[in-house]
């Protein structure tokens, strides 16, 4: 089984769990319905491990790797864990990062990803895999049906020859499938903010912008009640930021699927010796993808055509990031799991949800107004026809909340009220004129 095939099986499960039908998944991934049903059944039986090919080899391989290679694996992993704690270092400690370090050191034979995972698991150096008996968490999520409603943002990492790691930031409009991407040598909060500014200039400012919980987006995991740079920036430009559930890539299924296309057409096809070469070739793929008609869901339209069908306010090209971002009126959302004590964790604080059940997925909205901030926890997403508020908490603020600048108030959203006002004035004038004429006739 190739890595690409395994990733396709993972994508199929992400898409099914996000609500797409087996037929839609089969069309999107260019596989048969039988293939979709097969791997869905395997997943239900054995979880993510069930998506791998079932080996016919003996389960025990005592002589598979020399002990010197196993020692090298454990040492590389230990070094990566230590470096991950250092400021400015990338926190990649998985099997792929371990293999890359072993390759640079000339370890022979170079162990496969599976062998590295098995060695680390035997040494107790990995997190335990999710048990198939653990309850399935169903998280509330949005159901966008028009472009510019929801943009998903995520990072996929790649290693250049010799070891340097590249952070590839990708974004995609969930309905139009219109993508954007940039590549950086690091993934700090400044990189994340710069990328989002560029996304909102390219794709427009959507109603919602969804990110995961990496420190470059969340503001880190140290300070209680942290309101990080990206959160403040989203409020400042008028988009509602959504933080995905922790360690739940299925909630970001659309951008996760796009990562695979990006990897296939850029990283798997081209020789990329340095960051400059990556930045040179990546835009070619993005432009081709935007104008391609290969996406079955768009029914013959390209992402560019679908995206342009509905107007949107774009961030000005001359936008300058303020030296200090204020807290601005608006909303930020979090998809979270209720723990066994009926609490949720967000922004490095714990919040009670006594009306919820353990292992229930909830939608939390932090609303900022001129008078302060409140946290409301719901059983469903904002676009659900019926919602129940499970808890309300005041949120502590140490600074005032500023109003949203008129620059970022969407004129498209304001326009109907002016049209309605003009129409009412016109009707009143007509009625007055008719009444006047009628009275003169009498």
First-last Cα distance: 91 Å
- Chain oligomer state: single chain
The H-and-E topology, N to C, reads as: HHHHHHEEEHEHHEHHHEEEEEEEEH
- Major pleated sheet: 9 strands, mixed
Q: What CATH first level of the largest domain would be assigned?
A: Alpha Beta
Tally the structural domains.
Answer: 4
Under CATH, the topology of the largest domain is which? Answer: Nucleotidyltransferase, domain 5
Structural class: alpha/beta
Beta-strand content: 15-25%
Task: Give the strand line-up of the largest sheet.
Answer: 3-2-1-4-5-7-10-11-12
Based on CA atoms alone, the radius of gyration comes out at 25 Å
Protein traits:
442 residues, two-stranded parallel ribbon, single chain, Nucleotidyltransferase, domain 5, alpha/beta, disordered C terminus, 13 strands
């Amino acid at each position: 089984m190739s890595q690409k095939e395994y990733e396709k099986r993972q994508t199929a499960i992400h898409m099914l769990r996000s609500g797409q039908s087996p037929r839609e998944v089969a069309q999107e991934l260019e596989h048969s319905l039988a293939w979709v049903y097969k791997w869905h059944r395997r997943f239900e039986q054995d979880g993510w491990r069930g998506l791998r090919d079932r080996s016919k080899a003996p389960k025990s391989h005592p002589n598979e790797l020399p002990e010197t290679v196993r020692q090298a694996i454990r040492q590389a992993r230990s070094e990566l864990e230590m470096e991950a704690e250092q400021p400015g270092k990338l926190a990649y400690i998985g099997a792929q990062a371990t293999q890359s370090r072993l390759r640079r050191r000339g370890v022979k034979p170079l162990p496969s990803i599976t062998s590295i995972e098995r060695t680390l698991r035997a040494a107790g150096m990995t997190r335990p895999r999710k048990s198939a008996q653990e309850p399935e968490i169903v998280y509330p999520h949005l159901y966008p049906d028009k472009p510019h409603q929801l943009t998903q943002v995520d990072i996929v990492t790649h290693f250049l020859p010799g070891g340097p790691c590249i952070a590839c930031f990708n974004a995609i409009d969930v309905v139009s499938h219109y993508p954007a991407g940039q590549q950086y040598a690091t993934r700090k909060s400044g990189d994340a903010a710069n990328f989002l500014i560029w996304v909102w200039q390219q794709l427009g400012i959507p109603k919602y912008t969804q990110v995961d919980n990496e420190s470059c987006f969340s503001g880190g995991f140290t300070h209680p009640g942290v309101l990080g740079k990206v959160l403040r920036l989203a409020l400042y430009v008028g988009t509602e930021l959504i933080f995905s559930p922790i360690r739940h890539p299925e909630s970001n299924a659309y951008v996760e699927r796009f990562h695979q296309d990006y990897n296939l057409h850029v990283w798997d096809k081209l020789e990329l010796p340095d960051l400059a070469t990556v930045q040179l070739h990546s835009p070619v793929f993005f432009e081709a993808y935007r104008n391609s008609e290969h996406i079955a869901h768009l029914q013959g339209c390209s992402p560019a055509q679908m995206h342009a069908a509905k107007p949107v306010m774009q961030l000005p090209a001359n936008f300058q990031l303020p030296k200090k971002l204020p807290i601005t009126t608006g909303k930020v959302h979090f998809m979270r799991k209720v723990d066994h004590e009926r609490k949720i964790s967000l922004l490095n604080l714990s919040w009670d949800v006594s009306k919820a059940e353990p292992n229930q997925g909830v939608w939390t909205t932090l609303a900022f107004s001129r008078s302060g901030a409140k946290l409301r926890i719901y059983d469903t997403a904002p676009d659900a026809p019926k919602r129940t508020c499970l808890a309300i908490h005041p949120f502590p603020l140490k600074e005032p909340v500023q109003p949203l600048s008129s620059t970022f108030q969407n004129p498209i959203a304001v326009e109907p009220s002016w049209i309605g006002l003009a129409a009412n004035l016109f009707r009143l004038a007509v009625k007055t004129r008719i009444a006047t004429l009628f009275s003169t006739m009498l």
